[in-house]
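Typical record is below.
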Amino acid sequence: MMERDAIDWGTADIRILFRKFFVPTLLGMLSMSAVTAIDGIFVGHGVGSDGIAAVNICIPLLMIFTGIGLMAGVGSSVVASIHLARGKVKAARLNVTQALLFVTVVTLVPSVFVMSFPRQTAYLLGASEHLLPMVRDYLVWFVPSLTFQMWIAVSLFVIRLDGAPKFAMWCSIVSALINVVLDWLFIFPLGWGVMGAAFATSVSIVTGGVMALSYLLFFARHLRLHPVKRSRKSLRLSLRNIGYQCRIGSSALLGEATLATLMFVGNQVFMRYLGDDGVGAFGIGCYYIPFVFMVGNAVAQSAQPIISYNFGTGNLNRVARTGKVALITAMGCGVTVMAVFAGAPDLLVGLFLDPDTVAARIAIAGFPYFATGFVFFITNLACIGYYQSLEQVRPATVFALLRGFVLLIPSFILLPVWLGVAGIWLAMPLSEMFTTVVILGFYFSRRIKLKRL
């Protein structure tokens, strides 16, 4: 499990190298998503659609935190990759350590606020009076584990870069397995309901966070944590480095913010048109969205160290070839996922709720519409990751803003007026499709400019 391989980023066959990272990264990512989905399955059968709706109301807040962790993880791993390519091991270690310290501080302050005012936080997230007690319970029992969640978000990038993608995978798998066992125990034999689901998730996340941090403290090959000096000059340099990492990884934060926006605005629109049952139906779709997101993330993260390293050494031919492999993989995964969701909505919804319930029928009718966006969703994530890996912050950020805010929010507002309930499900597909068109236009316009030079 602690296997670490010497990796030749500059000469090894790109397809073999990408595959070596993609398979364990994908399995690890899906295991992370499984932690949330398992909650939903047990909550759906143990509590009902109201429980799913309550958890779904909490998820946007949790995704914002995860996005901050991914931003620091992407930024630190890109910077560390380039430092390693140039033989600056100490600088790479310092950047990783600074990223972990940053996410720890950023998480602790708002966590204390949420724990102090859970009722007010629940109202801010859009909880109805009926769902308020369950939303409050979930927040109180989950929020204490957020710091560990942030450690996982940063550390898994670094562990893969250090040459141990299988250990990164096991951090996620062990966490998911613990969550399965504890979800069943807390929700069914003990009857703790939504509170039990939150507590089970917290325990599993703490376990994964401890595993990941232990690797960086004691077992890492190159990227072991390094003490940070406390002088004023060192603090200033650390803040500068953290700011640079956040700039590089900002589109990763926007990626999570996209999911948070999708869920938050979708919850409001479904509540307006279909009430609590509509939020419960949309909640089932939102349990699956992290799986789709993680497939795109796995493609981007598997390509990132190869692209960043070769960009650092100036080998642009390998950069372009890696981008092509990543894009083909993303499109293939997108078509596969879309076919599964469009072809078997009753089976997928039935994992969470009895298909005869009102919420389940709404979800089964809406899933085929929702699924049309998955191929664009995954492809966009891979393209944004490509530009991140090249430290091209501006296009990556613009594309992330397009899919997450500029196009998504108007789609949610306008499409239900024109198309009814189907329009709510089609908001995400439309915004992702238009983002893909913009990315293609940007790519080909740059190629034309380069040919003219």
